[in-house]
Amino acid sequence: MAHPAYTQEEQLARATFLALMWSLSYPGRIYELPEGSNPLHVIADTLLDLETTFYTPDGELAHYLGRNNAREVAVERADYQFYPQLTNDLLVTVQQANIGTLLYPDQGATLIIGCSLDGDTSLSLSGPGIPPAQPNKIRVGGIPNAFWDLRDNANRYPRGWDVYLVDESRIIGLPRTTIITVGGE
To answer: Going from the N-terminus, what domains does the chain have, and what CATH number goes with each?
Structure first.
């Protein structure tokens, strides 16, 4: 039986979905998004549809994110939040992100944050998907250090935020189960 070939859009969405899935499964590992496209655009094309909601402080990006009929809503109601660049003044906004409830923890927001994965801030990671004998260490830049405390205070398993760190075509996933120590060596 012959099956129809994937279109280029389907191949792009599949490759992006696999990178997103594996990066949350193995926190701290760098995965590659398909090259040649805006990484926030390919993530949006993969995750957003008419049943999802989003928030972004970037007006141009908001226009793009609405292409798939996803609805732009207030930050506290958004399923997905896109921050091309996270600055100190945006931390008040991030703090309002939904963490879900004990009954519906899946309603916690997913934050997609543009950053540098070769930065000055060292993070030590531990938790599910990370070998316990040797916690994973990553270096990030372009994210205020206060964000990590904000995330730590918001995450109360099973409630909390899942976070994707995006640097060009590279992505790291940090599920709400990941314990992060800033400056951990």
So the answer is: 8-182 (3.40.50.11310)
Question: What 8-state DSSP symbol labels residue 44?
Answer: H
Say which amino acid occupies 17.
Answer: F
Q: Tokens representing 181?
A: 């120590």
pLDDT in tens, 116-148: 999 999 999 999 999 877 668 999 999 999 999
Q: Are 24 and 43 in contact (CB under 8 A)?
A: no
Residue 161: CB partners within 8 Å, gap ≥ 6?
A: 97, 99, 108, 109, 110, 111, 151, 154, 155, 176
For the whole model, what pTM was predicted?
Answer: 0.94
Half-sphere exposure of 160 (CA within 13 A, CB side): 19
